[in-house]
Amino acid sequence: MILPIVAYGAPVLRKVCADITPDFPNLNKLLEDMWETMYASNGVGLAAPQINKGIRLFVIDSQQIFENQDEEDKGKYPDKPGVKRVFINAHIKEFDGDDWSYNEGCLSIPKIREDIMRPEEVVLDYVDENFQPHTERFVGITARIIQHEYDHTEGKLFIDYLKPLRKKMLQGKLNDISKGKLKLDYKMMYAK
């Protein structure tokens, strides 16, 4: 089932999320719905707060980026062919490498894209959908998507990395998003 995406301004997007246990109700259905919602919204990642759940859960599919790459971008990222994965109870252990810029967007903040600096590599502890533990290093575009989605579980948004003046310049657009004044190709849920 395709779920509505929570729009900028909703309190759940600013909440530090809680870990879950293997007996979390209907987890498999939730994951199925998250994948379906992410693909229907043309996303490469989706975090539980974006569907109004305050839990440490996100899904990513960086393979799409490599499958849809322009000729000029081929060979640009070291993590080809990308990964499709579920991350539950993720906690970052370390960042590594140089910071690099990439033009990011977010399903909860539609029609705004900004260049954001993030480290090249991230190491995190997480469990998969079977609650098997992993400690893994990710690089390139996959590391960036993970950091973006992980931030959602920490109550942080990509626009928080912007300089105050730039964020102030975007405030009108952000207000329009929170009030539902945009026409979108996917369903949104707005703060009341």
UniProtKB/TrEMBL annotation:
Protein name: Peptide deformylase
Residues reported to bind Fe cation: C106, H148, H152
HAMAP family: Pep_deformylase (MF_00163)
Cofactor(s) demanded: Fe(2+)
Task of the protein: Removes the formyl group from the N-terminal Met of newly synthesized proteins. Requires at least a dipeptide for an efficient rate of reaction. N-terminal L-methionine is a prerequisite for activity but the enzyme has broad specificity at other positions.
Cited InterPro entries: Peptide_deformylase (IPR023635), Peptide_deformylase_sf (IPR036821)
Species per Swiss-Prot/TrEMBL record: Segetibacter aerophilus
UniProt KW Metal-binding keyword: yes
Reaction equation(s) it catalyzes: N-terminal N-formyl-L-methionyl-[peptide] + H2O = N-terminal L-methionyl-[peptide] + formate
Comment on bound cofactor: Binds 1 Fe(2+) ion.
GO MF: metal ion binding; peptide deformylase activity
Entry-linked Pfam families: Pep_deformylase
Biological process according to GO: translation
Keyword Ion transport: no
